[in-house]
Amino acid sequence: MTSVDLKALIFDVDGTLADNERDGHRVAFNLAFREAGLDWSWDVPTYDRLLRVFGGKERLRYYIESSQPDFEAPVSVDAFVRGLHARKTHYYKELLKSGAIPLRPGVARLLREARRHGVRLAVASTTTPENVTVLLDETLGPEGKTWFDVIAAGDMVRRKKPSPDIFLLALERLELGAPDCLAIEDTEAGLSAATAAGLSTVITVNSGTQRHDFTGAAIVLDKLGEPDDPFEVLAGDAGSATFVDISFLRWLHARQRQCRT
Ligand code: XBP
What we know:
Elements: E1 8-11, H1 21-35, H2 44-50, H3 56-67, H4 77-97, H5 107-116, E2 120-125, H6 129-140, E3 150-153, H7 165-174, E4 181-185, H8 188-196, E5 200-204, E6 219-221, E7 233-235, H9 246-260
Parallel strand pairs: 1-2, 1-4, 2-3, 4-5, 5-6
Antiparallel strand pairs: 6-7
Helix pairs in contact: 1-4, 3-4, 4-6
The structure holds xylulose-1,5-bisphosphate.
Xylulose-1,5-bisphosphate (XBP) binds next to helix 1.
């Protein structure tokens, strides 16, 4: 496979590094609701619908406005959402620390390989920054977060995905242009955000996003895969590859650049 200058990989977190929405964030929201004495409970279909709203605070506010019209917050809605969300973050980090949320197949291998090949790593995520560092600590060890040159997350930008802002911030902090990088995402909104930032994007779907529209992605896979656990190609051309490694990403990156010039 031809090698060109792929300089960095920019990873989404929730759903991409870890399959953590339904059994992580959703569970943490419900624990925070119960602690606050609320009879709200998000089952999986409800949460899957709410996932169309990016960002936990934004999701909470949307739920209150759309499904709890009679709810009267004891303080301003903004302050109430911030407080409840802080408790949700507490419970989410507890779940991470219990080891309940592993990395998806192939993620740890690809991160290590990227480092060996001098391909830099960054995060561009909607989630709260401490959620990212605790996930990396718990799954890769205390060194894990130092593998990433940039962690762009949460309220570091005002407009969340599908706005491109978090990817633009990651590129700015990497001091790289979009043509030098690839994004790895799992959602339609994430793909829109990365594409609007000028990035070619690899999609690894999960159970909540397999029906999203991924038109425009460089390739759509069911996972990164491993040598003994091959990916399934859902859209696009993977050549002879059966799992995502740096050689495959360099080939894909070169092909994307040819298409765009
Ligand atoms: C996905 C999200 C996040 C999480 C919750 O983010 O929308 O908001 O569901 O995290 P991404 P917070 O795919 O960009 O990583 O509650 O901390 O916002």
